[in-house]
């Protein structure tokens, strides 16, 4: 079924080297940063903090697809310039979401990992074009998508030409209202069985609440995820986007130490 993403095509787990950092196999990586780029001072402060705590990549949204047209939708390409400045100052490669075909060339030149958000997971025309760039891609699972649908979306990117596709479980819609979405941790071992591609977990979007991020992140590390995507903000109460689910740099530092202890305890190996 999955001619490029499946285990039938490649039996061993893929390991990608992106900006001199390895993802997959026995390598555990954390992508951290705010939901959206708000200002230069905000990004530089957070970038320094997450780097010091062990994050391998800096995330930050410059284009934000929002449910309401009245919500903050990002700084656009001005935000990308801020991310590039943070990369230059800290050395952290940058991860940000693409939402339009109009920005393909810019992202190909300036972004280290192109993120495809949950709402664009089945935007097949965009997926093919992103694949044609040959860049690393972080593909998030759709809000109501099955694992097979996620893997078929990865196929669209890979048939376009890209090989470095990272899958991301970020919670799906269920009947349960206690969290923003329901984090499907069973997706991690299921995807690892079906596909050779690395799989990350985003507990921030799944939980919707900062106090739930840590236990979900620890559970993701324990069940074999290849990495985490964590929202970190230096002042969550003033965040322009998704402040309720963002953890502070201090909490992130503590979380990183606990994640390492969990991985040592379960001694996860390929």
Strand order of the largest sheet: 3-4-5-6-7-8-9-10
Beta-strand percentage range: 5-15%
Q: How many runs of DSSP E, i.e. beta strands? A: 10
- The averaged pLDDT comes out at 95
What is the CATH fold-level name of one domain? TIM Barrel
Secondary-structure arrangement, i.e. CATH architecture of one domain: Alpha-Beta Barrel
Low-confidence stretches: none
Indicate the radius of gyration in whole angstroms: 17 Å
CATH homologous superfamily label of one domain: Aldolase class I
SS content category: alpha/beta
CATH class category name of one domain: Alpha Beta
Distance between the termini: 24 Å
SSE layout and pairing:
Blueprint: E1 16-18, E2 21-23, E3 29-33, H1 40-53, E4 57-59, H2 77-90, E5 94-97, H3 104-110, E6 113-116, H4 124-133, E7 137-140, H5 147-160, E8 165-169, H6 187-194, E9 199-201, H7 203-207, H8 210-222, E10 227-231, H9 249-266
Parallel strand pairs: 3-4, 3-10, 4-5, 5-6, 6-7, 7-8, 8-9, 9-10
Antiparallel strand pairs: 1-2
Helix pairs in contact: 1-2, 1-9, 4-5, 8-9
Give a short overview.
The protein has 270 residues and is an alpha/beta fold.
What does the model show?
It is a single chain. With 270 residues, the protein is α/β, with parallel strands linked by helices. The protein has a domain of 167 residues: TIM Barrel (Alpha-Beta Barrel). Helix content is 38%, strand content 14%. It has nine helices and ten strands. The strands form two sheets. It has an eight-stranded parallel barrel with strand order 3-4-5-6-7-8-9-10, surrounded by six helices. Helix 5 links the parallel strand 7 and strand 8. The longest helix is centred in the last third of the chain and has 18 residues. The chain is globular, with a radius of gyration of 17 Å. The model has no long low-confidence stretch (mean pLDDT 95).
